[in-house]
Specification:
By secondary structure, the chain is α+β, with helices and mostly antiparallel strands. It has helices at about 85-90, 120-135, 140-150, 160-165, 170-180, 185-200, 215-225, 230-235, 240-245, and strands at about 5-10, 20-25, 35, 45-50, 55-60, 65-70, 75-80, 100-105. It folds into 2 domains: about 5-135, no CATH class; about 140-245, Homeodomain-like (Arc Repressor Mutant, subunit A). A 6-stranded antiparallel beta sheet has the order 1-2-7-4-5-8. The mean pLDDT is about 90.
Length: about 250
């Protein structure tokens, strides 16, 4: 008999919410075959342990297309899902070179170890304390406001409007996105709109609730980013779409 797939999502302490979207956990991944990772607009720091107690930490860049994940012998999987500001101010690097991919991090990154995967609540508390210790003294106000506006609008805001609101040239905004994240702002916004659509699809609303041209455009965009139609996503047979399980708007 297969174990029940267990998932949790915990929102961050307010002090780190500019940088962290959520902490998430998926248990009993062993029974998932041909899982699909879909773009979520976040940079994920993942921690997992195999059934034979092997421990690994990986940093995943932004995803722009669905990615198949083969059946893996993973007993426990925790993740810190970062907002883009974290790339510059917490990780102090660019993730442009790991777009649609990732890299292995040092086994002791941020002082985490295999024992931290024994309890999700304790993992979250440790992550919050660590991130609080790394918070910058100053943040570029334009960048903070940029992401506030993007998230508030679910990506349904133009580069021109953003530029005018935060007094930052559109060309410079796109340079920032391409250099730090490996994609344009327009592409990033389309991912956020897709993510916002997932909660509607999960409710069985298989027609566009956001600013898509029409039903055909909606289906095309969903297929482009998820590799499946809205109807297939809604069914989510065999729990293939892993991030769809931990979408926070349940």
């Amino acid at each position: 008999m297969k174990d029940v797939l267990l998932h949790k999502l915990t929102k961050p302490d307010r002090s780190i919410s500019d940088f962290v979207y959520c902490f998430s956990s998926i248990q009993n991944l062993n029974d998932i075959s041909d899982g699909v990772i879909i773009p979520n607009g976040r940079i994920d720091l993942t921690f997992y342990k195999t059934s034979d107690n092997q421990f690994q930490i990986s940093l995943l860049g932004l995803e722009t297309k669905p990615k198949l994940t083969p059946k893996q012998d993973i007993s426990t999987f925790f993740s810190i899902n970062f907002n883009p500001l974290a790339v510059e101010y917490l990780l102090h690097e660019s993730v442009a070179d790991i777009l649609d991919s990732g890299k292995i991090m040092p086994i002791d990154f941020w002082d985490f170890n295999a024992d931290d995967l024994n309890d999700f609540d304790s993992f979250c508390e440790k992550g919050i304390r660590k991130i609080q210790s790394l918070l910058p003294k100053k943040i570029d106000g334009r960048k903070r406001r940029l992401f506030e506006l993007i998230f508030e609008s679910n990506g349904e805001i133009s580069v021109k409007e953003l530029s005018e609101k935060i007094f930052w040239k559109a060309r410079q905004i796109n340079e920032y996105f391409n250099q730090r994240f490996g994609i344009s702002l327009k592409t990033y916004c389309s991912i956020l709109r897709f993510q916002a659509s997932l909660s509607h699809i999960k409710e069985g609303k298989l027609f566009p609730q956001l600013n898509y041209y029409d039903q055909s455009h909606f289906i095309k965009e969903i297929k482009k980013l998820a590799g499946a139609s809205p109807k297939e996503l809604f069914k989510n047979e065999n729990h293939r779409f892993l991030q769809f399980l931990v979408n926070d708007k349940e």
